[in-house]
Structures
1.
Amino acid sequence: MKKFLILILLPNLLFAELLLEITKGSENPYRVAIIPFQGTNSSVNIIVEVLKSDLIRSGEFFILDEEMLLSIPSNIEEIKPSEWKLLNIDFIVLGNVIDEENSGLKATYQIYDVNKKNKIRSSTVFGIPGKLRQLSHYISDGIYETVTGIKGVSATKILYVNEIINSTDSDYILYVADADGANEQVLLKSSEPIISPAWSPDSKKIAYVSFETGMAKVFIQDIGTGERELVLLNDNQISSPAWSPDGKLLSLTLYQDGNAEIYILNLLNKNLTRLTKHYSIDTESSWSPKGTKILFTSGRSGAPQLYEIDLTKFNIKPMRLTFEGNYNAKGSYLPNNEGIVFVHRSSNQFQIALKYFNENFIRPLTESKMDESPSVSPNGNVIVYAITDNTSGMIAGVTLSGATFVLPATSGKVREPAWSGFLR
Amino acid sequence: MKNNNKLIIAYSFIGLFVASCSSVQVTEEAVYEDSIQSIEVSSNRSESSTPMESKAVLANATVYFEFDSFNLSTRSIQALKSITELMQENSAIEITIAGHADERGTREYNLALGQRRAESVADYIVLKNISRSRLTIKSYGEEMPMSSSSNERSWARNRRAEIN
């Protein structure tokens, strides 16, 4: 039985095309001891390994090496707080995984707060056979939330595009993968470029720009059924889709009069409302968390800068938000609406930068030469982006607490990451 | 179109209960996993470009632009002059103008910039009394570079509008 299970599970762990690697952790991580989980299930060790990787990859956690454990308490009552204080451990996780009759797995875990000397969480997760990593992601998110007070993002997903360069042409593949890069699956394979993938707020649909008709066009695709449709039937170029938080509207860039202008499409009745009117470029719209404002890039000052339109006010001029440097583009709001993340050019390098609304300066978050396509995690704590040049491309990330990670590509030019909403 | 029927797991979401009794968080939930469908598409680009090429073999040119700019240079105008003369002489010639950008900057802004470059070319041609209906204008942004290195020379080659 044990051998059989290992044969099934190893490919999942070994052949993941991309797997996130932490390059620098937070300077002041939470120190956690994970006691080896008990239980009847033979894959319990794999579940714990994935759980540990999830927590380490979040950048917020230090996980004590198993060899360093001074004792192996089998329940909360056996924990001696003084022993863990010696190791400077803040939290202890205990758990077990058992096979449920005729269904999947059942994992239970408890979190003990060494400083408060009591149990702070007791949870059960029912897993699906063959989806062990998901079970670990759920446990990880539970621990993350209890310890940090912020919802975890291990059980979320990321879209990205990979360009596979062949001898004479390229294949463009739109993937969806778990937030740690594992379990990647093809959503769309095309012989023409795919850019600007975006999630619907319920994470069941995606929108993207495909050049398959010979011109940039926006498609909506149902992830579960594979059904897809052009959002608008006309002869013009259409790009840069972004869903409103209620899922009813899609902002788009249309090129009706030859110039990029932002419109809002009502997905139910297909009514179009024009939002911008300026002879310069207006594109890259994104919605504020409550759906009351639209952030976009405009060339109206002579170079790309970020502007905001308040949808609740009638006929108000867009307000300029960025003033530092001559290139600020592709902005999106933090989920708590405290600031925006965008691409900023500084001395000929394109970096990802953050501007809080209550500060009058911007904070550069990355350092490589050509970073683009920032996408914020649903908990607002992590920003993924693409490090690109004409010969390579990979996805990297940075947390607001300063941890960094990369999702290296084994082949192709990976780019255009887009983080889903919460899935659990 | 190819549909890979992946294993569909229709596990019901059992529920997430959060109760707070004496500061212990108690929850129960079930792993939820959507099914995922794969799709493959191939373009009709080669089919549509063949008749166009036979119509206007001679009417092609490439003009180049400065960074973040869509202004035509004197050199570009020289190249466009011969295109417009050809089109004035032969009213059957229809052209496609495809604008491109270098890899620097964001993909969507570059798509819009490529469009502006193609429009600049179109505006010049229309000024020379060629009907806009004979022009197809589009942009590939930074997606179809002519040269794939990351340096000034290759960027200059990629900031272009292709007419054919």
Note: Chain B has one domain: 25-163.
2.
Amino acid sequence: MAHAHDHTHGSDHGHDHAHDEHAHHGPDKGIMRWIKTTNHKDLGTLYLFFSFTMFFIGGLMSLVIRAELFHPGLQFVQPEFFNQMTTMHALVMIFGGIMPGFVGLANWMVPMMIGCSDLALPRVNNWGFWLLPFAFAMLLSTLFLPGGAPAGGWTMYPPLILQTGAAFPLLIFAVHMMGISSITGAINVVVTILNMRAPGMTLLKMPMFVWTWLITAYLLIAVMPVLAGAVTMLLTDKYFGTSFFSAAGGGDPVMYQHIFWFFGHPEVYIMILPAFGIISTIIPTFARKKLFGYDSMVYAVAAIAFLSFIVWAHHMFTVGMPVTAELFFMFATMLISVPTGVKVFNWLATMWRGSMTYETPMLFAIAFVFLFTIGGFSGLMLALVPADFQYQDTYFVVAHFHYVLVPGAVFSIIAAVYYWIPKWTGRMYNEHWGKIHFWMSAIFINVLFFPQHFLGLAGMQRRVPDYNVAFTDFNEISSIGAFVFFLTQFIFIINMLACCFGWFGRKRDLPARVWEGARGFEWTVPSPAPYHTFEDQVELPDYELSMGGNGEHAH
Amino acid sequence: MRGGREQGMNDSDKELARRNIRTALLLGLVALGFLVAFIIVVVHK
């Protein structure tokens, strides 16, 4: 509240004293700046640093998995620890890496894109962030408990997950904290977008990134309470004598799977819709054309979000359900390819006959379109009930969702950081090393995940530390891809940290509009963006809106 | 809401802040609604 007062000024400036005293101060000094901050740019930075820390930790866990799978038989770790690694890798990457990464980008960019001074509830924003380090410290601490970390898979299916030892209550509490963080963040984003847009920015003039985040935030508000309820029922089943999911007590373990995936499938879109927004921002900039089919993009995102609520059981075809239900979920799932196809074709149409240049963010965006589509196609294969009975629990599924999440969601986060870091820091990244990073990533992500399609089709099961010797070659290729891909990311980290801290003599000498083809509010403020922006209401000229559905892009 | 925290705020800021709180509470209720609906579905199964 006080922060909104500090930085949200309308046309009335009848309180000059308070204005001078608060609105123009810079950030506090030292560690307290980061603990107490309610500034959306500070919190965006914190979210992004947290996200990349979690990517690093989750990446190390994936290396344990890939090292173990390099050869058949047991090499480095015991099966129990291997299962802990697969479970923790997923939890850390999903809830600690990808989601906070997108929240960090929303923190930085949504207020600047809609021309307001901060998020609507800045103190809630601070609280939402600071829940996360404690949640993940608690979750990761379970690795050192007797019995180790949770090992029943990130889906936490009972009865298996109920066999978890001392780690169990910590897992549940950590999920609750992540859920609270997500809900508060989502509410903040929705309130900001609905109430604080600059005059003249109607809903259908908003940048696509803002649109995708608005819809993502609604998804979060809808499904995170369901996850919270489900894991609370697991807790009471284990410690308070209930039998929600225990067949012996009259409960139904399959019901948990339905509940989990009612959360879990929209969660998949929570991790990809903001990526769509990023790609829809970057491609027009470097194609130097307005986004093709802006309105259809918005409706496609809304359609995908709606469909995400009626497809959950495609994750559990083999569990046993009526054929009519299987048919419904199969067709509903296949229907998603229609709005998704609209988006892919719109991106291609945006590039068509554009004045294309291939800076690093654009390279990652183009790779996203190709590689995400591969993940989409394998998803279509998995949607087919008879085929899914063959693919279920194999490496084909692992290949599918990693294609969607890594060259999909993660590439989009990388592309966004390359795209916006000149605006954030005022320093340009090294394009040469950016391109090396891109080509190494694009090649080795395929070396890592493409062979897993073949492994899955040949029958290799997921979540198993040992395998038939016939699968050795593809596993070796995949593991080499994993190690090189992981090491490649250090090029990116160093390149970005050099922008943050001015290493290698990088100067702050960038214009406000870093990319000549970029349009929007964020490119009207200096680079680096001042600590406080848009304290006074401004109206965006039509020229800046030209990336949306209105107006023509000026060359 | 009132008193100290609103000191020095102009009317439009106050109105915006109140509107933001109202919208946030409404969305919080929506989230709560999903939780309650979920519990009803599970209990009645």
Note: Chain A touches chain B at residues 1-2, 4-5, 8-15, 17-18, 120-121, 124, 183, 186-188, 190-191, 194-196, 221-226, 228-230, 233, 244, 252, 255, 259 (CB under 8 Å).
3.
Amino acid sequence: MSLSASIPQRNQIAVPSGMSDRWFAILLIVPAMAVILVFALAPLIYALDVSFRYADLTLGGMGEYVGLDNYRSVLADAAFWASAWVTVKFTLGAVILEMVLGIAIAFLIHGATKGKGIIRSLMVLPLATSAAVTGLFWRYLYDTQFGLINYFLGLLHLPEPNWLGDYTIALWSVVIFDVWQWTPFVALIALAGLQALPREPFEAAELDGASTFRVLRTLTFPMLAPVLFLVLVLRTIDCVRLYDAVAVLTRGGPGTVTESMTFYLYRTGLKLFRMDYASTMAIFFLYAMLVASLFALRPLLTQFSTRASEG
Amino acid sequence: MLQRESTFAKEALRYGLIVIVLGFIVFPILWMILTSFKPPQDVMVSPPRFLFTPTLDNYYHAIVDKNFLFYIKNTLFISVTSTVIVVVAGALAAYAFARYNIGDGHILFFILSTKMFPAIAVILPYFLIFRDLGKTSVGRFLGLGLDQPGALIVSYTMFNLPFAIWLLVSFFQDIPRELEHSARLDGLSRMKVLRKVVFPLAAPGIAVTGVFTLIFCWNEFLFAYILTRKAASTVTVGVESFFTLQGILWGPVAAAATISVLPMMVFVLAMQRYMVRGLTFGAVRG
């Protein structure tokens, strides 16, 4: 025990001085931790408290404790489940499209011999824009009268849908917008993954005369898997939290066909002022995201950080 | 010969597809910029006009009539203040995590999990807390009430710190420990090592983190929408003010959107080497 303590540890800088390394490190994290603890935990505790009360802001604010009543009514609320279903459909549609297109585009660019710099520069542009601002402008693109999208479809003699007004299409119009904004992100990550692949296994496979499909299946994709899983999880978490695009494109409509969980939460809390009900949904939501990041995100990120420190 | 023709055909197909993809990606933005220069009579027409005499009318309307620069000013103040706080607090903490392994990764992950919170889930408590804080004298002094910049600065600091810490940890890990070690042996205090050795070496990473944070703050919508009305509104909310009873003024909307998006595009282009790294919290070094 005493022996191991006297050996300087790899991640510590062993120079004797007044303050121990540990205290110095704790001092450094105090400002950030104070902000995070206060401003992440305070609203959490607040929401938890409200979720056990009766709280209708139109009737004078915080009421008495009602136990699990809010939880029961949320679980029995058809509109809550409908919004959950909207969120699932959106997430599945957007994530699958973004992954498939993003990976395909990455392969396309990876094989290009010239102009990669310019291609990448143009690809990152949607990532610089705010979904609230460009999403708003997409309403103009989707417009049935003046919109560019239907104009092009008309030129090709294709049907010209009412993108944001049709019950069966509106949600997919939001998906298309998200795909426009985030496919470049998937493509850039997949491209970075492709470019970081070692050459030797591929040269060996070529010597052995392995088919392209076989190389993809046994070499490329398994080696890309960690990066692709990471981007899959990040995109999924983001899509489940979808709010901005719905808020500016459809405001949940027509009817409630594009009302995601976040938008339903917003509407009950800040339009109907049922803080109790909205807070209960927020707790459900937080719990789901916590589970997702704990079981999906953490192992992936740990894998990357250990790899980086080895490399 | 045949071999060469088939590779040429393949290349032509590849670049053809790339051009189509880039067309989809760039066109909405390009159309927005074009629309911002259109005279009013060319904006709401069917079929859309591609040729027109460019004018600055929409910019005049956005800036003079709608006072859009007011939102730019608010956004600039709120984003820059949040970014400075995030980068300073974030760099100190990230260094501690990267070098001293505080909390054995658990605290670091707890920090990231707060970033995964859906903003909408904490916005109701924030709304109520800031509403009450704004009525106290301290809250009023610090501008922490509803429709005051302090409320947004606090929210943005909170929501960007986790991201910044993770990204900065990855940058600090790239700096060889030996340099700090020898500086310590030369008798520099820990704080001096941090100031004179570590931070200068990490400057590019710190700058990248700062720019990312600035972009996220600048583009944020939900907090700005719910916590402000007018006095502290930012660009993302300001654009919404172009909705009038007569309908949406697409020309001025395009002008305002262009003004608010262009600076961020310049930043993103300057940093594209770090895009992947930033958007994966430093995990993929690209």
Note: DSSP finds 13 helices and two strands in chain A.
